[in-house]
Structures are given as structure tokens and as C-alpha cells.
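Technical note accompanying the year-one report. For the benefit of new consortium partners, we illustrate the data format agreed upon in the data management plan: each record pairs a sequence with a C-alpha cell string. No post-processing was applied to the example shown here.
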Amino acid sequence: MIILVLMSLTHQIALSLIKGVGPMLAKNLLFHFGSAEAVFVASKQEMKKVEGIGEKTANAILATNALAVAEKQLGFIQKHGIKVLFYGDKAYPKRLRQCYDAPLLLYYKGHADLNHHRIVSVVGTRNATAYGKQLCKQLIGALLPYDVIVVSGLALGIDAVAHQESLAQGLPTVGVLAHGLDRIYPAVHRELTQKMARQGGLLTEFLPGTNPDRENFPKRNRIIAGMSDVTIVVEASIKGGALITAELANSYNRDVYAFPGRTSDEFSEGCNFLIKTNRAGLINHPRDLIYYLGWDDEPVAKKEIQTQMPIQLNKEEQVIVDLLREEPMSTDELAIQSDTPQSKLAMTLLTLEMQGILISLPGKIYKLA
């Protein structure tokens, strides 16, 4: 039985290696012949009956040495405990399978369920500003009660913050790579990926030995977009890879949201463009995302996080928050106990409410979110 499984796996890997046979043609061959093994014993005439397979491609399949290469790769894969997820396997990400250009094979190290009931991708610029990093941390904190897996691309900047903050908050996080699992790029993330393999995973369509070449990154981005329910662009320039991911998510009919920024900020230009052209919904606060996704009416799993302040408060704001830690209060009570004029108090309350720290109740009552 084990030998049969290994033979099947060898043929599946080999099918993904044939020059000129991409994911769509490979799937056409599978649907026609029923298995990867059957492809490699088919005649040229049988192959040419498959949609998209002409004389040139049929000759390439017949002449390929992909089986020999696959056998060598299989040894490395087994030695290092890499899981091979074939397109038809139950463990293959079902959301990604719905995409027309989904990879035939994925290579995976980790424990996170790639078919988890909620998967959110978080992407952004490699040149993240303090503003973008803070937004990203707030976002991950807001996702914590809703049992999600956070996916990103392991790049410097926003991607790294998303992975790091997920680990810190106890959320599983999956990094999608633009190279094989025998290397880490950028190398500075080696320790981070070791933690991710234990609390999430590392995923790629590229065999061991594949370098992080430029053309691999858009391919990586389609997996990020395709395996997720929603893509959130935190901060991005107009030419950033994050916009490619957002465009791919749109093409897959997935939700896309973006945080706006000042019109003069280079690394908000991409987000503002996505919002302006209706390619992404606008979110001012992570709470908006929860509302749009319809998660706001579900019970919060960890009540204690509600009073953690993810941003720096000024003196007046901190006084109000400290008073409301005890119990909800009216504006009159807050004005008296904080010794703050009503006009100044109103502005402070509005600011805290917009930041998602306070909730306004009927009768001018406020409580912590």
C-alpha cells in the first residue's frame, strides 16, 4: 500500500514539473485520464484528445525526465516531514481549489488546518510605517476572539508584523512562500518561521531547491488571495505586491478591505486607490471589518482583551478609560469625576469611540468596548 502511495505521489509531483504544462493543463489531463499515473502511460494520440494539448505539449510530456526528478525530490520531502497536498486531496485548501489557476500541488510544513472555517489574509508594504504597523497590530488583536487563521507572505514590513503579532496573540498563522521549503527568504525570518511551523505553518507550490525569483512572487500572491475568505490591505504603495494580491482576490470574488491613509503618504496611496476605485471596502477600524463580515453578533471568546488598549492614550483619554474600567458612566458623571468641561469631554469621548475603545449606550452612557 505504501509503495502504491509513493508511486502515485511521484507521478503527481512529476506532472507538476513538465515544461509547458501549467496548473490548468495538468488538471485537464487529470480529468481526462483519471490519475497522474495514467498520463505518463498515455500515447500521443490519446493526449491530443485533451483540451489544450497539441503536438508540442504531447511531445514534451513523452520526452520529459520529470519522473526521475520527482523521485529525487521525494526523498528530501520524506526526510524533512513535508506534506504534499494534491489538488484532489481532502487536506488541499478548498477555497483555493475553487480558483481556476489553483496549483496542482502544495508543499506544507505545519499544523494549522488549511480548511479552517475562517481564514484571513493580511498584506501590505515591505516599507511599513509606524502607522501601518500599529494598524496591523490592532487588526490582529481584533481578530483574536473570532477563531481565525491569519495568512500572509512572510515579507518584510506588514507581512512580518501580521505573523509576529499573530504568534504573540496566540493565533495560528500561515506564511505562503515564493520558494522551496529548504530555504527561508528573507533569511532574517528564520527564527520566525520556526515558531510559525509550530503555531501555524509554511506553504508553497515550489519544490525544494527553488529560489525566490521575481516571477514567483505573483504566483505566491494568488495562493494568499485564493485560500482566504477575505484579504485586508493594511498599507501599500501604488506599485506594491499587496495590490496584486488584492486584484487577484477580486478576480476570485473574495472580499477585499483596506485601511485609508493621508493622500500625501506614499504607502497609503495603494490603499486609497483600492478604495477609490471600489476594489476594496473602506475600514477605519478593525471593528468595521467584524461588522462587514457579520461576526459582530457572535460571542467574544476572550473577554479580557476588551480592555486592552492597543494604542497610546493621552492623559485625558487615560483618565476616562480608567473611570470606565469600574462601571459604565453617564457623561455627567464622567465630567464630575474627571473634572473635565463638557465641551472637552465630548471631544475625548468621540475620539475614544472612533478608536473602538468605548461604546455609546442610550441615555448618554458610555462603557468600554
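Partners are asked to follow this layout when depositing records. The two ends are 56 Å apart (CA to CA).
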